[in-house]
Amino acid sequence: MSRVPILIASFLFLFQLPSSFAVAGESDSPTAYSLLQSYNFPVGILPKGVVAYDLDTSTGKFHAYFNDSCSFSLVGSYQLNYKSTITGYISENKLTKLSGIKVKVLFLWLNIVEVMRKGDEMEFSVGITSANFAIQEFLESPQCGCGFECKDSDSKLEMFGRNSFVSSS
């Protein structure tokens, strides 16, 4: 089979991609972090290192991609783990049906399934319980591996300073 028809077919396919598809790093596309802000979320709910994302603006379905999984600890004994691909649905002040984000509470790893912004607070739900944190704790993105305790980081924010996931809401 000739390469020319394959190249033409590939070229035509690219033009048929939905206009809602966006990849971080394209000059005319917003970054994943600025996209979060357009839905009224602070950038710090995503760690640094998103290499690409896609969003279907008609449904809010999204995927965010890292080169690898991303783990870090935060002051207050929380450990977070982001898989290399995070999925969910985004709308104004709400992330739902999340997949790919876990938090370690005591000795258990729990999936964060929903995040909602309520005024100046962020509510994180693991399904059976939720916890609220001040939005100021999410103004900067943590770094994979070291969170906010990186040697090159000027930020020494104390995030998740209390063990709020222990009590049920």
Automatic annotation (TrEMBL):
Protein name, entry field: DUF538 domain-containing protein
Keywords: Signal
Highest rank taxon of the organism: Eukaryota
Signal peptide positions (record): 1-22
Lineage: Eukaryota, Viridiplantae, Streptophyta, Embryophyta, Tracheophyta
KW Disulfide bond (keyword) present: no
InterPro entries noted in UniProt: At5g01610-like, DUF538
Pfam family, one: DUF538
Signal as UniProt keyword: yes
